[in-house]
């Protein structure tokens, strides 16, 4: 417990300390503004889902090159792939290597708060979890990217919830497996069996109370824009690793995250932690019957996922512990690799923001891309 307080106050001090001019500016810039500032070709695209949400997709454009679709985690946005700057941002790195980079934004985050008929002030706008993101947002974005570029397949790289929503899509809409050259899952999250995150475990314990009071007071959006956000979001959710945290860039991280999500997304994760499964949203036995024609929500069939999946995991990841990742690997229909980061303290957020993420993770991602591209070419 003492460790929690020490880290929290250290981070609070870092958040309030004087910052470099560029860092202060980057904390306020949007994803397209960041891309443009550092001299990369930026584009903004609008994607409409089958259920009417308008998603903003950001592109580091390299027309004619193989597209890669990057999908962020919960409470995050497209900014996560570039906010660390050209030296560490995975989006920039992959573009420099010759790829066409597309960065999605989930419904409900700061870039995707539009709908054909609903307003974010309507509670019905927020009636979604990562299930709807998986069956609607990801397919719409994939189809848009492929239609815009003329390619038949793309690479998919997801972090955290970006992996959860992919597993939903690829199991519930299995035709999309044929549009994926490779899926690389950074800190993959499916069932929570051995979860250690006190943040999610708290929600799991108080599911009914959180659901009741959020409904009672009309709180539909989950956003932690407060003084403790930089401490809580980084460490209480994903694990401690002070050595990999770039304190200089902390104001930028805090400026872009949290980017917004629905309360229902958090409740759904809480259900996974309570029931130790990977199933659709549980409305209670009575409403489940009308929703699913069953008293219990159906679980996702991971064997239907035939796209090549590579799992990247870490021993100090409280949201994706090794036991859960190993079980996920066994359950997938076409698991092609499982890579443990060779650094014991690496945590959930180090995959995208860690000081040594380029050496410990990103280079491995690139080698997998090349390997599966060669395999794809050999088929044709």
TrEMBL record:
One of its GO terms (molecular function) is hydrolase activity, acting on ester bonds. Pfam families: Abhydrolase_1 (PF00561). SUPFAM superfamilies: alpha/beta-Hydrolases (SSF53474). Residues 67-354 form the AB hydrolase-1 domain. It comes from the Eukaryota. InterPro entries: AB_hydrolase_1 (IPR000073), AB_hydrolase_fold (IPR029058), Lipase_euk (IPR025483). Residues 1-17 form the signal peptide. Keywords: Glycoprotein, Hydrolase, Lipid degradation, Lipid metabolism, Signal. GO terms for biological process: lipid catabolic process. The active site is at residues 160, 317, 348. Belongs to the AB hydrolase superfamily. Lipase family. PANTHER family: LYSOSOMAL ACID LIPASE-RELATED. This is Lipase. It comes from Hermetia illucens (Black soldier fly).
């Amino acid at each position: 417990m003492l460790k929690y307080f020490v880290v929290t106050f250290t981070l609070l001090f870092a958040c309030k300390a004087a910052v470099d001019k560029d860092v202060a500016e980057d904390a306020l810039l949007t994803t397209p503004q960041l891309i443009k500032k550092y001299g990369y070709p930026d584009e903004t695209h609008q994607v409409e889902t089958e259920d009417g949400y308008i998603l903003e997709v950001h592109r580091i454009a390299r027309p004619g090159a193989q597209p890669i679709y990057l999908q962020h985690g919960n409470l995050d946005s497209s900014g996560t792939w570039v906010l660390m700057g050209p030296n560490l941002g995975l989006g920039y790195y992959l573009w420099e290597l010759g790829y066409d980079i597309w960065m999605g934004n989930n419904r409900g985050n700061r870039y995707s708060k539009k709908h054909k008929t609903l307003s974010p002030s309507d509670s019905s706008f927020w009636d979604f979890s990562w299930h709807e993101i998986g069956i609607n947002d990801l397919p719409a974005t994939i189809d848009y990217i492929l239609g815009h570029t003329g390619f038949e397949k793309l690479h998919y790289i997801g972090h955290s919830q970006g992996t959860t929503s992919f597993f939903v899509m690829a199991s519930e809409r299995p035709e999309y497996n044929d549009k994926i050259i490779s899926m690389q899952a950074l800190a993959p999250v499916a069932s929570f069996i051995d979860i250690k995150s006190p943040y999610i475990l708290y929600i799991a314990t108080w599911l009914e109370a959180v659901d009741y009071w959020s409904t009672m007071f009309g709180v539909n959006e989950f956003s932690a824009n407060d003084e403790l956000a930089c401490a809580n979001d980084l460490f209480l959710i994903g694990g401690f690793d002070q050595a990999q945290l770039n304190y200089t860039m902390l104001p930028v991280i805090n400026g872009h995250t949290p980017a917004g999500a629905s309360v229902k997304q958090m409740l759904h994760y809480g259900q996974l932690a309570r029931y130790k499964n990977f199933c659709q949203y549980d409305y209670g036995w009575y409403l489940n019957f009308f929703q699913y024609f069953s008293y219990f929500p159906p679980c996702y069939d991971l064997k239907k996922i035939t796209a090549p999946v590579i799992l990247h995991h870490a021993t100090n990841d409280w949201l994706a512990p090794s036991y859960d990742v190993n079980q996920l690997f066994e359950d997938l229909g076409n698991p092609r690799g499982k890579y443990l980061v060779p650094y014991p303290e690496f945590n959930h957020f180090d995959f995208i923001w860690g000081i040594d993420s380029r050496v410990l993770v990103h280079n491995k991602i690139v080698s997998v891309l090349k390997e599966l591209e060669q395999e794809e070419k050999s088929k044709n």
